[in-house]
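User: My advisor, Dr. K., asked me to get a structural model of this assembly before our group meeting. I'm new to this, so sorry if the format is off. These are the inputs:
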Amino acid sequence: MPYFDAASAAPLHPVARQALLAALDEGWADPARLYREGRRARLLLDAAREAAAEAVGCRPDELVFTSSGTTAVHAGIAGALSGRRRVGRHLAHSAVEHSSVLHAAAAHEAAGGSCTEVPVDRSGAVDPAAYAAALRADTALACLQSANHEVGTEQPVAEVAALCAGAGVPLLVDAAQSLGWGPVPAGWSLLTASAHKWGGPAGVGLLAVRKGTRFSPQGPGGEREAGRAPGFENLPAIVAAAASLRAVRGEAAAEAVRLRALVDRIRSVVAERVPDVEVVGDPVRRLPHLVTFSCLYVDGETLLHELDRKEFSVSSGSSCTSSTLTPSHVLKAMGVLSEGNVRVSLPRGTAGADVDRFLEVLPGVVAEVRERLGAPVSAPPSPAPAASRVVDALGRRCPIPVIELAKVIGEVAVGATVTVLADDEAARLDIPAWCEMRGQEYVGEEPADRGSAYVVRRLG
Amino acid sequence: MPYFDAASAAPLHPVARQALLAALDEGWADPARLYREGRRARLLLDAAREAAAEAVGCRPDELVFTSSGTTAVHAGIAGALSGRRRVGRHLAHSAVEHSSVLHAAAAHEAAGGSCTEVPVDRSGAVDPAAYAAALRADTALACLQSANHEVGTEQPVAEVAALCAGAGVPLLVDAAQSLGWGPVPAGWSLLTASAHKWGGPAGVGLLAVRKGTRFSPQGPGGEREAGRAPGFENLPAIVAAAASLRAVRGEAAAEAVRLRALVDRIRSVVAERVPDVEVVGDPVRRLPHLVTFSCLYVDGETLLHELDRKEFSVSSGSSCTSSTLTPSHVLKAMGVLSEGNVRVSLPRGTAGADVDRFLEVLPGVVAEVRERLGAPVSAPPSPAPAASRVVDALGRRCPIPVIELAKVIGEVAVGATVTVLADDEAARLDIPAWCEMRGQEYVGEEPADRGSAYVVRRLG
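Assistant: The format is fine. Below is the predicted structure of the whole assembly, which you can bring to the meeting.
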C-alpha cells in the first residue's frame, strides 16, 4: 500500500521511534524539578534543543519547542506583530502560505491590523520585487514559506530576506516542508517548523526567534520554553523530534537526489500518458519529493477514491475532497486548474517500483473516471459550426461545468462564444485554466441570476 | 529511587506505553484524509474521544483534545469569557487555582477584564457561600479546581456548581489532579484535564464544553478539534491518553484505598516524629495520594536536596526552590507555614516499604538541616525575661528570620514584643504562621527603611 502523502504527515522515522521509546523511560519527569528524574529530563531537553538549533542554524537559546508547527506559526506571528506594534500593524505574506499563516493573518485583521497578500506566478513563486513592493513603513512583519506545501515550489527566501532586511522588516520563514531537507538560507528573523513533516512524531513544532528581533509573547504567560510555549514540555516527543531531524538531515543529500529523479519521472510520464493534464509547480526550483498535477474533466474526490482502491494514498487540492468545498487557495493563487488535482509527496525510502506501478495505474484510473462522467475522450467532434451557445451547468459540481464546456466548444464557430452558467465555486478557477490549456480565449465572468456566466471565445 | 512527585508528572502507565506504541504504527497519518491510513487514524481518534468522554461524563462531541492541560485551561477560559462577553467581563476564581488559571486571569485583566479571587480557609478549601458572594451580574465565568495540586484538598465543586447554576454563571472545573481518580461531580459547564497527571503521555490535555455553554474560540482559527485546538492532532499520544485514563479508572477504587492509608500514615508519623512541623491540607476531603507538610527552621531547597541524596524525589512550595523566589501562592492563600515545605504525591503502585523508609529517613534529614542552620533544637532556653527586642534579619533568606525570632522569643517577658526586620518575601507568610503554630501573638507588619518590621508579642 504505497503511501504518497508525506507532505501531510510522514511515517515515523526509525530513529524517532527509538528515541521516543528511550525518552518515555528517561524523560517523563518535569525538567523544572530539582530531583534526579527532573535533572535527567532537563539534560535531555537541553540536548534536544542543541541538536535542533544546530539543524536550524541558530543558537539554542533562540529556539523553543511548541506543540505543533501550527502553534509555532501562531505564536511566532502574534509575538512578532506585538513586539513591533509601535512601528505599525501591517503584515505581509505570500498568497500561498500554509493555512496556519492565513488563519493568523485573518485573526490579525479581525483585531484591527492590516494585511497584504503578495501574489505568485503560475509556478507558485513570489517575485522578490513584488514582495518588496508590499513592504510599507508600517509593516511589522513579513511571512514567506521556504517551499510550498501543495506544489513544492521553492520561494526566493534569500532574496526576499535581503529586501526585508533593507526595509528593516523581520521575516518569518515557515520551513515546515523543507527543514528535513536542509537549512533555510540565512536572513530570516523567525523560523517555524513541524516535526511530523520530517518523520518526527506529532506534537512538536519549532519556533526560532533571532536575538535582536523584537518579540512579545501573546496569550497567558508561563514559565516554560522562555514564556513562548505554555504547558508541560512534551519531552519524549521533543527528544524524538530532535534525534530524527539529525538523522534525516544525514540522509538528506542522497535521498533528495533519488526522490528528485522519481519525481522527474512522474512529471514527464504523467504529462505523456495522461491526456489533458497540467503538471504544476516549478519543475526545477522545488522540493525533491513532491509533485502536483491536475486532470481535466475529473473530480478530485472520485480520483482519490479510485487511487485508494488501487492502494495508492495521495491528497488533492480539488474542491469536494474531505470536508472542504472550495478549491485550494494555492492553486487558485497560481491560476492553474484545480479539478482532478493530485498531490504526490514521496516519503523517504519510497521504492522506484511503487512509483512505476503508480504510473501504470494512473492513466487507466483517470480514463475510467472521465468515462463515468461523460467527459470528451479525445478532441471533441466538430459538427457544422453554430452561433454562440449557452450551457446551463447550474447546480452541477466540478468538473461537470468544464466537461460541458468542452463538449460544445467545437460546435460553435471560431470567434463565437460559449457562455457557461455555473454556481460551483471551482468553475471560476477552472474555466480560465481550461482556456489557457486549450488555447481558447477566456472573455470574462458576468453576474447572473444564479451563480455566474463565464464567457469563452473559440479561437481554434 | 522512590519517586514521590506524581502530582508534577506521573510515570507512564504500562497501558499508555502499549497504546502509544501501537498507535505510532497505526495512527501517524492525517485523520482528515480520505485514504486508508487517514481513515484508520480517524477511527482511532473517534474511539479515543468516546473513551475520554465516557470517563469525563460528557458527549464525545463536547470534548476536544488539546496539547496540554495548560492549553486546555487557556483555551477554555478565553473561549468562555468571549462567548459571554455581552454579559460582562468579570471572572471569578479561587485563590489556589493552578498557575495556568492564574495566568489566564492575569491576561484577562491585562486586556481590560476584571477578576475576583475567592479566598480559602486554612485547609485550602473555598467556602461555597464566599464563592457565591463573588458572583456578580457581570460575571462571565467562574473557575474552581476539583482538588488542589499542592495540598490535595478537595473543593466543594457540587455546591459551588449549584450556586453558579443559580446565578446563571458557567463553571469551569480544572480536574487536572483528580480525573484519574474518578469523575467530577455534575454541574460543571467546562472541564479541563491533563493526561500526564494520570499516567498518560505528555502532550495531551482535555477540554470539555457542555452543549448550551456559550463558547467562542479565541486566537487564529483552524479546522481541527472543532476549531478549539489548532494544529495537527497528536494522535498516538491521544490514543495512549484515552487508553490509560480508562485503565487507571479501572484500578482507581482499590488503589485509592491503599494510597489513602499510606498518606494517613505519613500524616500521622510526620506529625509525631518531626518536631515543629505543620501538616497542611484537609485530612479527610482530599486526594488519596497527596500530602504536604512544612518544617519550621528549614529551607525547602536544602531539604529537597538532602532528600534527593537519600534517593527520594519530592517537590516543595517553599521559596528558593528551582527558579522561583516567592513561596507558593497556595500556601500563602491558606495562611500556613511555607518554609521547609515538602509535597509528597505517591504514584500508583507505590510500595508501602518505600513510604516506611521515607518516614525513617525524614526526621534525621530535617534535624540535620536545622542543625546546620543553627535552629533551636528543642524549646529555647529561658534566661531572665527582658524588655522588648528587635532582631535584624535584613538580607537573610528564609528560614533564617523565623529561626532568629524563635531564638529570642524566650528572652523577652510575656507581654513584651520581638520585632523582626526582614526583607525576604517569605517572612510575611512564615512569621504569622509560626505565631499560630507556637501560640504567640502576631501583632502585625510595619513598613521599615528596608523590608518590613514584623511585630510578635510573647503570650507564653
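One thing worth pointing out at the meeting: The longest strand of chain A covers residues 139-145.

User: Perfect, thanks a lot.
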